[in-house]
Amino acid sequence: MTNNDKQQELKIIDSENFRDMIFAALHWLKEQKSFIDSLNVFPVPDGDTGTNMFLTFKEAAAALESNDSNSCSDLAQSLSKGALMGARGNSGVILSQLIRGFSQSLKGKKKIKGKDLAQALNKASEVAYHGVLKPVEGTILTVAREAAEQALKTVDETKDIIKIMEATIEEAEESLARTPELLDVLKEAEVVDAGGQGFVSILKGMLKGLKGEEIDFDSAKKELRKQHSTIAEDIKFTYCTQLLIEVDTRTKEIERMISKIQRDMQSYGDSIMVVGDDDIIKIHVHTNHPGVLLEYGLKKGKVFDIKIDNMKKQNIEKVEKEKDPAFDHSEFHFEDKAVSGTTEAKPEKAQTEDKEIEAKDSESEVIEVTKNTAIISVANGEGIVNILKELGVDIVIEGGQSMNPSTNDFVKAVEKINIDNIIILPNNKNIISAAKQVSEVSNKNIAIIETKTIPQAISALMVYNDEYSPAELKEEMEEEIEYVKTLEITKAVKDSKVNGMQINEGDYIGLCDGDIIVTAENIEETIMLLLDKTNEAEELVTIYYGESIKEEEAEGLKKSMEEKYNFDEIEVYKGGQPLYPYIISLE
User: Does the global pTM surpass 0.70?
Assistant: First the structure.
């Protein structure tokens, strides 16, 4: 079919169309992500809705690319699994739920008609709404719902998928324009909803792909994997082993079988991923004994699509290749990461534009925890990381403001720990939702303490008692974080109007528990104004100074606070955190 024919009429989406649609959406979302980031209401340096949606969609597209099926149903399932594992931030998690619903609706459909597409968009909206505890109108949820409603109406008028998508996008844009009318905070900031804008960008990209418009697909694909190799000696398990098992589900329920296999795989190696649909189970394990795994699979059913790679050999070849100065480190790699969400190669450092966040511990390392309940936390800044580890955190995932770990980052950390009882401290409101999704892909007993700040995490760790059960620990920690107040100082990244305050780019902003309270041109003035408004006779103050602050500056602030306020004790620690010169806890 020529491009002109595509533009005139398209009644069926086949696997090739589906791939074009997704990669065009990925490319267009990449082009728009900086603009989407700029739409975040608050001028704090964590406006990353576009980035989080892009990184989530990138992982979804990588999973799709690894699937060579000619069935749209199969491709959609891969897309959904990739989105689940790659979800970052609240916007990424909602996007993963949209994709999940989209995928569920297309199950069993080798090709997609206009009616199928409209129903899939509608199911996407339903699943996303269901996945949010308290849905708020005027967000991506509203835009997705109203766009889907228009798609269903248009199906009654035409079978042409191009026309259906055009009408859907037109309604999505109108819905997006109405979001400030539904949310006062958007109206005050004079912006539309960032997540809704991201959803519109994806729809537009999908249409571009279906129309056959010129898209730099090579560029889009390269975005899926920017990485460099680790040395082969660091690889503990040599063989990346993948196999599919056809099982008889008449006698056993598929989810129960998957759970049993996941438990059994713990003794075979690491980087374990077991997923299944209907009567097919896929196993991915890094192991030193692939033959034993094949024997195991044969006991469960019919084994096929076996793939065994010697990762040490591959890695040695890759390292040698990278010694060549002309080697392109943005080369596109699908390999195992696209399927399993795990890889032995480490991502590029965080300062790259589309960074991937990684746990500091090596991929293959097993963390031997001797206590009854392990702790995973998220933090950024050498000083803060050290404090958390001294207080008993077993794994610290690098992340925080503008660096939201994905669900897969949490899964990999969970898999490294040798015990089943695990507590996760996200320490950021935009990371909580990704952490919560870990329970969907792990059989371990995981409790999420919804810490939104580093001081809350430290407060929770102070009541850790290894004699408590995980449920008792969760209750104690959640109660303790209610008694700490978190003050944060940062610089405005754009002009904005929030809570009746006119904030200019470069001004200092003072936040209390995430809400912008004061703004001023001087950092110490901002802190004093913030304390004046938030101090309620707290006794203990702890100052964590960031990477841009010298120790003598922090000590000077302490002295000023001692002269003005009657706190019982003021402690100063080097946090080393970026973006926020000071984080202050009041207790």
Answer: no
